[in-house]
Specification:
2% strand, two-stranded antiparallel ribbon, mainly alpha, 478 residues, Growth Hormone, Chain: A, single chain, globular
Length: 478
């Protein structure tokens, strides 16, 4: 069971004659991971709209970077607030709030009449993305058995990439229908505005679907709602396992008070707990390897080295499809191979592929149009290396970091730990995304990608030192 594919009709034995209700678990996980889809869509929709934003709002390169990266400020705040709010209001209720923010942001960003209006709309969307990014994995980890938790938690990354790819496809189709991203489409509105409005559809689906899934049983126990928690766990795992699990959760919380931020410090030493530093480090380095440069600036990047706008958007779609395939590999192997080995393989693979991309960009020449150009053979090598990098990331660091963040913290500090690690992740994302346009323009693509390669190299040793395997362990054992 642990290493093979999982089907919705499959049941998993827990002993004592009871079997997991896999169909129900898959159903609620599917709903929860729509948050991952919205995370991906809201992040990826900006890719292909930059020209429209620059023309509509008269943006400089720094202004473009800030408008692109504005969502990430909201993400950092949303991730920080969501972990603690989830300890007070519940995982599901905060996800419902996030879904509402997605909907408002989609409508507002498309209708923006100024850069300030647009940034405000994207900040609201960022609050939703940040909340969904930390709550989806923790919700999944709290409603799934340890034997299949890694596989189900990995679905978060698949949905993130599916959302990114969905945004790329929608942007490409809308640009083709209109002629290009700045041409008029329906109701005399440019295509780039419709690219934002399209995300209102999945946002509405997410909002409605969340009304039909249960609250996390671990949150219910923490709030003293034992009967409700027992009912949810009984439906998931059967009455005997439900009773035992409620007891385990109560025992894990009984020696302590309700969760609070001060729990992140070790009461004996007064220092931040090592597990918190481990979570923050893997969250930051997930972004320092530069993955979102591919997803946020992919179209601009490939155009800068000679590809047409249409071909650049197709490359984005190819990267998305390869990412989904890589994530499916992780789903099939994460509960068999483990988390730490996959992270180490990913660090090594990303180091080599990013170094190759940096080397290729170092050979780019300046064309008559003032843009960079790669020789045909070098361009192909860069394209292959970039897509291999995407595969390595999405088979390892992409899904595994979210799996780890959802399960590595003890019950007492899960909300607070996720708040800090999630905020650090989005702060790093903001730094990398906003710094890319000026860094690429002033330092060059070779040095910029060289930094990402060095970060991948460093991440290998950080994983070896800080990360402990969590495969097969119940949350109460963490």
């Amino acid at each position: 069971m642990a290493g093979g594919p999982m089907h919705s009709g499959e049941s998993v034995s827990l002993g004592a004659g009871e079997r997991v209700n896999v169909a129900f678990i898959v159903l609620i996980v599917a709903v929860a991971t729509i948050g991952g889809f919205m995370f991906g869509y809201d992040s990826g929709v900006i890719n292909g709209t930059q020209e429209g934003l620059e023309k509509a709002f008269g943006l400089s390169k720094f202004g473009t970077g800030f408008n692109v990266g504005a969502i990430l400020i909201g993400c950092a705040v949303g991730a920080f607030l969501a972990g603690r709010l989830a300890d007070r209001l519940g995982r599901r209720n905060v996800m419902i709030i996030a879904a509402g923010l997605f909907l408002v942001s989609a409508l507002g960003a498309g209708a923006a009449s100024s850069s300030v209006f647009f940034v405000c709309a994207r900040l609201l969307g960022g609050l939703g993305v940040g909340a969904a990014s930390v709550l989806t994995p923790v919700y999944i980890s709290e409603v799934t058995p340890a034997a299949i938790r890694g596989r189900l938690s990995s679905l978060q990354q698949i949905m993130i990439i599916t959302g990114l790819t969905g945004a790329f496809v929608a942007n490409y189709v809308l640009a083709q229908w209109a002629g290009n991203s700045t041409s008029l489409l329906w109701f005399d509105q440019p295509a780039w505005r419709w690219m934002f409005w399209m995300q209102a559809i999945p946002a509405a689906v997410y909002l409605i679907a969340l009304m039909f899934i249960p609250e996390s049983p671990r949150f219910l126990v923490a709030r003293g709602r034992i009967d409700e928690a027992t009912a949810v766990l009984t439906r998931l795992f059967g009455p005997t396992t439900a009773k035992r699990t409620v007891g385990d959760i109560q025992r894990s919380l009984s020696a302590d008070h309700r969760p609070r931020f001060s729990d992140l410090r070790d009461r004996t030493t007064g220092r931040i707990r090592p597990i918190v530093w481990a979570g923050v480090v893997i969250a930051i380095f997930q972004q320092f390897v530069g993955i979102n440069i591919v997803f946020y600036y992919g179209a601009v990047l490939w155009q800068s080295v000679g590809f047409s706008e249409g071909d650049s958007l197709k490359i984005n779609i190819l990267s998305g499809v390869l990412s989904i395939g890589a994530c499916l590999f992780t789903v099939a192997t994460v509960d068999k191979i483990g988390r730490k080995p996959l992270l180490l393989v990913g660090s090594a693979g990303m180091t080599v592929t990013l170094a190759t991309v940096a080397f290729c960009f170092a050979s780019a020449t300046l064309g008559a149009d003032g843009g960079l150009h790669l020789a045909t053979g070098t361009g192909r090598i860069a394209l292959v290396a970039a897509n291999l990098y995407v595969i390595f990331f999405n088979a390892t660091w992409g899904p595994i970091v979210w799996v780890m963040l959802g399960e590595m913290f003890p019950n007492q500090i899960r909300g607070s730990g996720l708040a800090v690690a999630g905020a650090a992740q989005w702060a790093a994302n903001f730094f990398i995304s906003v710094s890319f346009p000026p860094a690429a323009a002033n330092l060059g693509l070779a040095i910029t990608y060289g930094f990402y390669a060095v970060s991948a190299f460093v991440s290998f040793f950080l994983v070896r030192t800080l990360i402990h395997e969590t495969r097969g362990r119940e949350l109460e054992e963490m």
